[in-house]
Write a structure and sequence with these properties.
Blueprint (H helix, E strand, L loop, with lengths): L18 E9 L18 E4 L7 H11 L5 E5 L29 E4 L1 H12 L5 E6 L33
Length: about 170
């Protein structure tokens, strides 16, 4: 297998839906512009996209490929990190909107190394067929918040806040 939620939960984009898909992979470059899809039939296929951070992320690729053009799902690798981190997998999420009577499907985030390997196979004319088995649930859950307080000695009536999130 290429990726596994059990081994790397961050690989499955948040808000992905359940699916059992076997489909051909097609490279759409960044996948964030309508022009990335010109001359490409993505309907029923999985799209491979570099979906850079500053230009739209996986959600935009999902909207353009899945909701507007009928693709089965998205495989995304971020192209904005330096090559010093080729195995870095970044977290991302999908919005759960529907469009054109199509519901959201799923997205996987893979490393730049894996994304480029898949891209090279496609560029060399190889047919790549991938299978995705996802069991996902969109339901209310719990989100733990950790709070702490360390009173200061010199200025105990003043506060300094540090805030972070899980990803």
């Amino acid at each position: 297998h290429l990726i596994s939620w059990a081994e790397m939960p961050i690989a499955l984009a948040s808000n992905s839906r359940s699916a059992a898909v076997e489909a051909e992979l097609i490279d759409v470059g960044e996948g964030i512009h309508a022009s990335d899809y010109e001359g490409k039939d993505v309907a029923g296929r999985l799209v491979l996209a570099s979906s850079p951070q500053g230009k739209g992320r996986i959600e935009l690729v999902h909207r353009l490929a899945v909701l507007e053009r009928g693709a089965a799902g998205v495989i995304s690798y971020r192209s904005y990190y330096p090559d010093d981190f080729p195995d870095l997998v970044t977290w991302d999420h999908l919005f759960t909107f529907e469009k054109n009577e199509r519901t959201s499907t799923f997205g996987f985030c893979v490393s730049k190394r894996l994304g480029r390997e898949l891209q090279a196979l496609l560029r060399n004319g190889q047919k790549v067929v991938l299978r995705a088995d996802i069991k996902a649930d969109l339901s209310p859950g719990e989100y733990g918040v950790i709070q702490g307080s360390i009173p200061g000695r010199e200025f105990p009536d003043q506060e300094v806040w540090f805030i972070a999130h899980l990803d």
